Amino acid sequence: MRRGPDPGTLDHALAQQALAAGAEIRFNETVRHPDRGDVVAWGPRRAYILAVGYLFTTDLADGTFAVLDDRLAPQGYGYLLVHRGRATLATCLFSDFHREAQYLERVLDFFQRRLGFTMREPRRFGGFRYIGVNPPVPGDHLFFAGEAAGVQDALWGFGIRYAIRSGSLAAAFNASGDRREYIRQWEEKIGRPLRASFVNRLVFQAGGALGYRLLLRWIAAGRSPGDRLRRLYAPAWWKSAMFPLAHRAFGREERPVLAGCICSWCAARAGEAVAGPA
Ligand SMILES: Cc1cc2nc3c(=O)[nH]c(=O)nc-3n(C[C@H](O)[C@H](O)[C@H](O)COP(=O)(O)OP(=O)(O)OC[C@H]3O[C@@H](n4cnc5c(N)ncnc54)[C@H](O)[C@@H]3O)c2cc1C
Is residue 76 part of a domain? Predict the structure, then answer.
């Protein structure tokens, strides 16, 4: 799946659907004070994950590769996706944001040494992601959707499916309708898997390098990686029991904005009050 404004991307397809349904799209306008009843989907306001990478063209055959190694992506992952000559290579960091450039170069070096490719027309990209650390109570999210509501997988930071689910639930909400049904659906589609993802993250971080190795072996030993990942992501009673602990442990690291730092997090906050370098 591709993102962006071009035909054939998710964003373009959603825009076309919205226009066909009679919506008006206004670009380059900022909403400062949403009205009651609005669905607010303005994306992340804080950073828990930082992703930085390259988009490029290449002769490599189609493939999907990921690496778990704190020297390349602290508590996160590096990846390389190739589809019909277009490639995305990135590092996703859950810690140590200010050294994003160093981690990105290490991921690039890692994949180049193993797969031996050259990048053509590389374009750098970067961004940050937010995950709600307030307990995901449906009422709080009534008219907030996607990352504005913090609904994002806490294990690896996948938020597209949650953004679409929460957006469509919020848009379909009828204030005079059955609120309990809304909450039931929110629980099933968002609340339970989201809480399970916090526990996945706790276990993932606690496992460290040995845990990463065992996890990758377990995924590789399955019928298909998708099959194993579905099991990993599935809610379970023991995950519900562990959620309060996982939630307390999540996102405790301070993310100071440093004067003069050009990482994606500091750059996005430029202009706000900044702390001096440590
Ligand atoms: C580099 C990167 C890679 C990612 N890869 C994946 C992936 O592989 N799979 C996955 O599932 N997720 C991925 N994610 C996360 C995913 O992109 C997000 O979770 C998802 O796009 C969130 O959707 P959203 O609509 O809530 O917010 P966004 O996609 O951030 O959209 C918010 C929009 O609101 C606009 N906006 C902001 N403030 C205002 C305002 N005041 N008024 C009007 N408009 C405003 C912004 O300009 C933006 O266009 C990735 C994120 C990043 C940064």
Answer: yes
Please tell me whether residues 245 and 145 are part of one structural domain: yes
- The Cα–Cα gap between 25 and 7 comes to 17
Instruction: Kindly tell me the burial class for residue 17, based on how many C-beta atoms sit within 10 Å of its own C-beta (0-12, 13-18, 19 or more).
Output: exposed
Residue 232 contacts residue 224 (beta carbons within 8 Å): no
- Summarize pLDDT for 218-229 with one digit per residue, the tens: 999 999 999 999
Q: Based on the structure, what is the number of domains in the chain? A: 2
269 Cβ below 6 A of ligand 1: no
**For residue 178, how far is its CA from the centre of ligand 1 (angstroms)?**
30
Whether 14 lines ligand 1, by a CB cut-off of 6 Å, is: no
> Distance, CA 218 to ligand 1 centroid (Å)?
31
Range of 77's domain? Answer: 49-129
99 domain residue, yes or no: yes
The tens digit of pLDDT for each residue in 110-154 reads 999 999 998 999 999 998 888 876 654 545 445 788 998 889 999
